[in-house]
Task: structure prediction
Amino acid sequence: MTTIIAHITIKEGSEAQFESIMQDMVARTLTEETGVLRYEYFKGQTPNFYYCLLSFKDKWAFYDHQNSDHHEGHDFGAVIEHIHLEYVDPVSKANPLPKTVDAPLEPHHNESLQRAARLYPLTIADWWAARQ
Result:
């Protein structure tokens, strides 16, 4: 499983366009993708700052999401100033989601998944191992 919190700063004056894109992204992700567990957007307290909580059955489902036609079909550069993806791991018995796991790249994975693995490497924090 892979869970991510995206920290998103959008360009000044792009709120309506960003939120419209995200409404389409959520609708299409939840109806067209089978590997998504959660996909939610939130406005932050800081102006022009948003969060996205994404959770997928595995990192390959996340990479499929990144490569999807609906993801590739939007001009995110027009509205997003900066984005930081933070991989997170659920707290045992305090969150129903499964653990975040960095599955190995295998020979059968196609070039688009290999490219996504290079662009969005999954990072497991060392200290998580002690907190099963």
Summary: Residues 15-32 form the longest helix (18 residues).
